[in-house]
Amino acid sequence: MRRLPFVLVVVASAALAAEGKWTPQQVLELGPAWVKQQGFSLPLSKLWDEKKGGGLLANAVQLPGCSGSFISAEGLLITNHHCVVGILQEHSSPQQNLVKDGYLAATREAEKPAKAYRLQVPRRFVDVTTEVLAAVPPGADDLTRFAAVEAKQKALVAECEAQPGTRCTFAAFDGGLFFTLTEFTELTDVRLVYAPPEMVGNYGGETDNWSWPRHTGDFSLLRAYVDGKPFTPAYWFPVSTKGVKPGDAVAVLGYPGVSYRAWLADEMAERRELYFPSAKALSAEWIRIIQEEAARSPEAGIATSDDVRSLLNRRKNAEGQLMGLARGRLIEKQKASEEAVRTWALKRADQKPALDAYEALTALMVERRSTWARDFLLDAITWGPRALSWPVTLVRRSAESMKPDGEREPGYQQRDLARLKERLERDQKRYSPPVDVRLLESWVVRALELPASQRLAPIEATFGRYRAGDGGAGINGDGLRSQLVRLIAGSKVFDLNERLKMFDETPEQLRARRDPLLDLGLALDAERRALKDRRDRWSGATLRLRPLWRKAVLAQKGKPIAPDANSTLRVTFGKVQGYTPRDALVAGAQTTLSGMIEKHVGEGDFDAPRKVREAYEAKKFGRWIDPTLKDVPVDFLSDCDTTGGNSGSPTIDGAGRLVGVNFDRVWENVANDFGYNPVIARNVNADVRYLLWLLEEVEGAQGLLRELGAAR
User: How many CB atoms lie within 10 A of CB 700?
Assistant: First the structure.
């Protein structure tokens, strides 16, 4: 494994703050003394061994949209409850609602198989910067630059995945300053072992989401199998039965998705002024639609349980981002930081390329804003009504299948087809006809209300006559709704068997079907391809410009800076501690079972399960009372630096034992994607002792306790 560029891994002379989502390679460069200063007694070689290319950090496993970790030698894995809702949904019916009631497998044979649920266990990391940069032709324009990097990415991944049972991912850091390839062992036989009832795993619901205090047991247990036998991981965390207390050192390991701290202030402003307000408004509208239909039909409620939870999270995240950006004046601070770098660079003749890059990146943002509303709606297709997302996916897959594999769009290559097809099949359980027609109507109305300069030709051709006045001044809702109902009734996209046939058809075969939704998908696909072409050019420009600016930023700072999150393996170090959310309020670092019961009102987001209340009332606390709290611990805070994708991340103590599972951030810290503030930077963890209490005193799951080394 080659070391990362020196500019990113300069050794610190003193302990750093908790800020930083560090790569394993950076942890090596920061060195054993630095790791010890973070409160970790483990030798650095136990965390990461460069010769072996592994260590305890490699026990952070990548799940679909989440992280997890092995906690036994028999393939038992822990993650968040909200990361397995799709599995619960898959096995639920109105007669047996596992989403609501939870599930405990009494035997190995009773573990529930999960369709299309894959685990990726890291086994090798390679710096491929030299190869990638060498692939860009001299004097390449921006589109050519992007195409060259993408082609090299595909070639590297294809070569890597030639090994059986292997999944590989390519990642760019700091906009193209360096590139890595990660090699994973992919496990496709995953089974549900334990998920608590919804009113444990999601206790507090939307009311408490992104908040503190929390009393949520957001954990679940899975088991990975290979050839019908439990997978034996190279690394796994022993479960701590003693837990943590305020001041204890902890670390969170996982795959944080995306952060924006390296963005320019103007780029951050686009999030504040356009993206977050739009995401908030659209999510709120779709949540209302889903909840109205779920109230009418238990089937609709089950089908949309995962979708509505994602939308609720998206909406509240947007609200928190907006609040945090304003409260922390993060964009203003970023602007000031940029000016400091510019002042520094102006005094150095060799920094003119960095200054020119800064101006060009700013101009690029102006161009991107010109089609922003239109582009946002095209993006929303992927998380919106299946009446759009399914046809568009089928059409794009069909078009890409006509190309050689190396020239296909990422996401539609041969390596992606099994996942893509599995999702189209799995999502049948997530489809609710009355919900979908209303979501489709919502999306179309918004498309009809776009400014005249940004309108979508396919929508104008199909639905433009329902605009009551030019410029979007009102919509003929009855006429539009009738047309949508006719479109859906005339389509076979919603028939699973037909949809799976469509997956393997050519564009000509899809057109020959004369299916109205496929025809709309074909027309919208042209718009989305035009958007991709623009974005490819913008990405090529960013690959050319961002590294020049980031080199200047790093040189001016003169200290290690962790690169922005990009779904690669990271570790963040911190301590268990409370915080002061606002003037005159002090929040403790831990919550308890008594606090959970105090919140119980018997309905809504605070309806604690009967068996949990009965165990509490009978004072069945067993061994799990914290001696200081004098209660069963439920959740705790730390100042580790996390973001989306860290859901399910293991939280370990200084000896490498699992003490919790990360599942959220506090409300005041939502905007830490844009800047870290140690005063309010707190992530929320489910205490593993709450899980152990549930298994022993509520569920009587002695077999699992023995496997975890926590039996009496």
Answer: 11
Name the residue with tokens 């006429």: 479
CA–CA dist 704, 192 (Å, integer):
13
Taking 50 as the threshold, does the pLDDT of residue 470 lie above it? no
CA distance 299 to 399: 35
Catalytic residue among 67, 72, 81, 82: 82
What CA–CA distance (Å, rounded) separates 668 from 321? 9
pLDDT in tens, 362-382: 999 999 999 999 999 999 999
Question: DSSP string of 208-236?
Answer: HTT-SS------EEEEEEETTEE---S--
600 is catalytic: no
536 in active site: no
Helix 386-400 vs helix 516-557: angle between axes, to the nearest 10 degrees? Answer: 80
DSSP letter assigned to residue 110: G
Q: Which entry of 72, 638, 647, 649 is annotated as an active-site residue? A: 647
* Interacting residues of 95 by C-beta distance below 8 A, sequence separation 6+: none
pLDDT, averaged across the chain: 93
Spot the catalytic one: 127, 218, 306, 564.
218
Respond yes or no: is residue 638 known to be catalytic: no
Q: What share of the chain is helix, strand, coil (3-state, %, to 5)?
A: 50, 15, 35
Q: What is the pLDDT, as a whole number, of residue 469?
A: 57
Residue 111 CA from chain centroid, whole number: 26
